[in-house]
Design a protein that fits this description.
Blueprint: H1 3-34, H2 40-64
Helix pairs in contact: 1-2
Length: 69
């Protein structure tokens, strides 16, 4: 793996990690409107939505942003 690939993967990973936060917040907000969550249950809901969003984002964007990021 050359330095260009490392730079690319690091840039796309940071992009996906940052852009997943507002999506996660909107999804958890919608969930808490239906099911009241507090404390530890709310933290678990944040984690349970953030991880799949990040994984799907990385799976989707890594091949598509080559040459852009």
């Amino acid at each position: 793996m050359n330095l260009e690939n490392i730079r690319y993967y690091l840039a796309v990973t940071c992009l996906v990690l940052g852009c997943s936060i507002p999506i996660m917040g909107a999804i958890v907000w919608a969930i808490t409107e239906v099911i009241p969550l507090e404390g530890r249950a709310l933290n678990i809901a944040y984690i349970a939505t953030y991880i799949p969003i990040v994984l799907l984002g990385l799976r989707f964007y890594i091949p598509r942003l080559r040459g852009v990021a």
